[in-house]
Specification:
InterPro entries: ATPase_NBD, Gcp-like_dom, KAE1/TsaD, TsaD
Number of helices: 13
Keywords: Acyltransferase, Metal-binding, Transferase, tRNA processing
EC number: 2.3.1.234
Bound molecules: 5'-O-[(R)-(carboxyoxy)(hydroxy)phosphoryl]adenosine, zinc ion
Pfam families: TsaD (PF00814)
Strand order of the largest sheet: 7-6-3-4-5-8
Enzyme class: transferase
Length: 366
């Protein structure tokens, strides 16, 4: 929390160092709190992507050390699949197929989950994720970033008039399910500059009028950002129901799904389409270990895991890390020109890897 506030967001190098400093203690605390030791475990699940390579490495190294020392199989987990599947831990009737809108700091995707490990991506962001827009808005408004920007914007928005600043809803003319938040971010920055709001002056010491201005921007930004989600979700539900008419649920998860305004607005959309919204509690929406353990368990149960690593790993061992790793296969009708995907090396999607492995298995059985 202090690092987030100090650097105004996630600084990769400092994040890696912080991960390295605490990883042993975090794992030990989790075992202690569960009243278990490593000997009681049946497998180790660990996030292998997508995310910051430096931080993924710290986790994978630790997981392989534990698994190697106690001869445990290891399950590599997709971070976004974990955000979606943790909903099945809290909602027992949530069976496949279902839809999921996954909204966090780095990702903004809407998928159709056919079965475990198989996803069709109906939409993604062409630039920033909504969480990034919340974080920057918080930073520019001089809010307390210790809990990340989102909760601070949500709280201040309660004091503001959400119709006072007229931001444009992004991508009104695109008849697809893709998202864009970069333009809205710029609109917010310009509105802040026009009102001469000084981010260096914390909102706690702002004058009444200044605070009111900041709250109006927070509320107006939140309304329009969420309206964008609402419009795209409505269309995505129509598309998904054509592909899989038996869908009954829409999951909304990822850090931004802990926002109460997001939850209530999306609930209206989902109920209008006769589906049920499933939102994990906020503690399971923002990044957490439970979702990774749960997703590991789901794959472990169907035999998808790697054998235990050697107790002593060679020094030159190359870790399987996937910083850019799509979850699903893109739906042809919804192809996006996602900037991040065009510029960097992308790993084949989880869905394509699992499909290839399953068909290989079928071939060897016949
Ligand atoms: O899923 P998450 O914990 O980490 C990533 O995988 O990115 O999501 C973090 C993001 C941050 O951008 C944070 O500002 C946002 O989720 N967030 C929120 C709220 N709580 C967290 N955004 C809006 N309202 C919230 N209450
Ligand atoms: Zn996340």
């Amino acid at each position: 929390a202090e690092l987030l506030a100090q650097y105004g967001g996630v600084a990769p190098k400092q994040a890696e160092e912080a991960h390295s400093r605490v990883i042993d203690k975090v794992v030990q605390d989790a075992l202690d709190r569960a009243n278990l030791t490593e000997k009681d475990l049946s497998a180790v699940a660990v996030t292998i992507g997508p995310g910051l390579g430096l931080c993924l490495r710290v986790g994978v190294q630790k997981a392989r050390r534990v698994a190697g020392a106690f001869n445990l199989p290891i399950v590599g987990v997709h971070h976004m699949e974990a955000h979606a599947l943790v909903a099945r831990l809290v909602e027992q009737d949530l069976s496949f197929p279902f839809m999921a809108l996954l909204i966090s700091g780095g990702h903004n995707i809407i998928v159709l989950a056919h079965k475990l490990g198989q996803y069709t991506q109906l939409g993604t962001t062409v630039d920033d994720a909504i969480g990034e827009a919340f974080d920057k808005t918080a930073k520019w408004l001089g809010l307390d970033l210790r809990r990340s920007g989102g909760p601070a914007v949500e709280e201040l928005a309660l004091e503001g008039d959400s119709k006072s600043v007229m931001f444009n809803v992004p991508m009104k003319n695109h008849k697809d399910c893709n998202f864009s938040f970069a333009g809205l971010k710029t609109q917010v920055r310009l509105a802040i500059e026009a009102r001469k709001i000084d981010a260096k002056c914390p909102v706690s010491s702002a004058t009444r009028e200044d605070r009111r201005n900041r709250a109006d921007i927070a509320a107006s930004f939140q309304r329009v950002a969420v309206l964008h989600l609402e419009e795209k979700c409505e269309r995505a539900i129509d598309w998904a129901l054509k592909l899989e008419p038996s869908i009954k649920h829409m999951v909304v998860s990822g850090g931004v799904a802990s926002n109460q305004y997001v939850r209530s607005r999306l609930n209206n959309i989902v109920e209008n389409k006769n589906l049920k919204l499933v939102c994990p509690p906020p503690s399971l929406c923002t990044d957490n270990g439970v979702m990774v353990a749960w997703t590991g368990l789901e794959h472990f149960r169907v035999g998808r895991f790697d054998p235990p690593p050697p107790a002593i790993e060679p020094d030159d061992y190359v870790y399987d890390l996937r910083p850019r790793w799509p979850l699903g296969e893109e739906y042809a009708q919804g192809r996006s020109e996602a900037r991040s995907l065009r510029t960097a090396r992308v790993h084949p999607s989880l869905t394509s890897i699992i499909r290839a492995a399953d068909s290989l298995q079928q071939q060897t059985q016949t």
